[in-house]
């Protein structure tokens, strides 16, 4: 948590001076609170505020999240919203704490002079789209006595004791994020973390098996089933090929791997462009890894839209994208094969994929400690 002294001085517009560093004497410095990743929690609150018209206060939004069908909520018809009851993993006091931190963080604005309604700020809209991050402090006073997770709690680290299952869980989260950006909805509207945890543990191979996973019904099987089953299948294949490569004493992948042959992709790219220099586009290992990441993103989109992968972008486009690493829409538009239509339809998704991959590479290079 932040130094309380520094926060107070900053909120009063006072010069921090020596308190640019933690004071070491306040409660937060002496007993730092537990802090958790709160993207999903933040998106749930903001989605509830948005879908209820940004006119209600914290207590009302919390009742929506908890699935409390109060008379007022029924009168407004908000018990039929997609966000009704999606927040049962936390109790009322925990949600109050999270809402307060969203307000303090500038994601929500409370109409103090009016009726106390919560409105979404520009920073909050970025959080809804996944472009912002949110972390929240755990208040020990509101979790006392809770010895186990609630009915909607993820419990992913307890459930996924096998490293391979955890790796699959992370892959499913990437797939979910791509779909969420494609459909312009918060990630939890695709599947919750609890659903992905169960999916990673069960590893369903058919739509019928997928329906046995917690939180997966007929509608979502029909809409997203093929994408997630494909991600699970690809992950299993990758693990098998890595095992074969290890058995053969080779750090690379087996020749039988179904993943794309990068040399073949380069040859096709060279024949398309007539540019010998393109052979060097994927010479760098980081570029090759980004190219594979972009292919995963493309395949997810293709399955979502039920079109061949090349209808999203060609390999040549992805190779150039991996080499250039565009960070803005104008930069992306300068890549071969990207026009206004595809830029508008897929641009943000691929920029997000590039940003996520590049950030992960930077973090990997940072020294430990």
Summarize the structure.
The protein is mainly alpha-helical. The chain is 56% helix and 3% strand. It is globular.
Number of strands: 4
Derived structural class: mainly alpha
Low-confidence stretches: 15-19, 144-158, 250-279
Could you describe the largest sheet, including whether it forms a barrel? 2 strands, antiparallel
* End-to-end C-alpha gap: 19 Å
The succession of helices and strands, N to C, reads HHEHHHHEEHEHHHHHHHHHHH
Gyration radius, in Å: 23 Å
Average predicted confidence as pLDDT: 76
Can you describe this structure?
By secondary structure, the protein is mostly helical. Helix content is 56%, strand content 3%. The chain contains 18 helices and four strands. It has helices at 4-11, 27-30, 39-51, 58-66, 71-76, 92-104, 122-129, 140-143, 156-159, 163-183, 193-202, 207-210, 218-247, 262-273, 285-305, 315-324, 329-333, 340-365; strands at 35-37, 108-110, 118-120, 135-137. The strands form two sheets. It has a two-stranded antiparallel ribbon. α4 (58-66) crosses α6, α10 packs across α11 (193-202) and α15 crosses α16.
